[in-house]
Amino acid sequence: MNDYVFPPEPQPSVAVRGSRQRYAVARIFCVGRNYAAHAREMGSDPDREPPFYFSKPANALVPSGASIAYPPGTSNFHYEMELVIAIGAPAFKVAPEDAEATIWGYAAGLDMTRRDLQNAAKAIGRPWDIGKGFENSAVITELVPASDIGHPKAGAITLAVNGVEKQRGDLSDMIWSVPEIVANLSQYYHLGPGDLIYTGTPEGVGAVKPGDVITGVIEGLDNLSLTIKDPD
């Protein structure tokens, strides 16, 4: 017997490369417009303004290699290829020079977006949740410990749809670096193990449709793939 009205859902988690252990996920933070060219293509000024964030529920996670249904309520379903940070130690009001010590590892991820719903919310000053925080919207590869690969500061980040390249950038193009993101976010939250941070996407975002296969690569991390199925 237990005290739950309904059985709780399984703990969201991410596989770890070369290990049977998994990384339990509590929260997913996402950085908006962190590549200048992407900011321009979305109609924004890429000057170095303070970073801003939105979030996704932990149960939005889906592993690389999965097939997901085209989501309801949209006709403009977009991909955004991103480096993902996995926090591994308490981080509250840390300085940028101390931020890397709080990072456990990295993965490649997709911030899938119902762009039409996001744009409609933007136009009337409402939150983006319906465009960003929905089921299967946070795709992720296996995590790679920083102890194995260090802390990536540069390297190609690319995405293709059906074998045709759509996004190409470099991690060094980020407006706010990984340590700066962690340090800034830690001014507002008590970060800790279980927190993922999607760090923004290069230019070239675009729509996919049922039958499309997305593939993505970030140097040093596992390759990412996702297949889009017909709507439920």
Order of helices and strands: EEEHEEEEEHEEHHEEHEEHEEEE
**Helical segment tally?**
6
Distance between the termini: 35 Å
Q: Give the strand content.
A: 25-35%
Number of strands: 18
The residue-averaged pLDDT reads: 94
The helix/strand class is: alpha+beta
Low-confidence stretches: none
Biggest sheet statistics: 8 strands, mixed
3D shape? globular
Helix share, percent: 10-25%
Gyration radius, in Å = 17 Å
How would you describe the overall organization of this protein?
This protein is α+β, with helices and mostly antiparallel strands. Helix content is 15%, strand content 34%. The protein has six helices and 18 strands. Strands 3, 4, 5, 8, 9, 11, 12 and 15 form an eight-stranded mixed beta sheet that branches. A hairpin with a 2-residue loop joins strand 13 and strand 14. The protein starts with 12 loop residues before the first strand and ends with a strand. The model has no long low-confidence stretch (mean pLDDT 94).
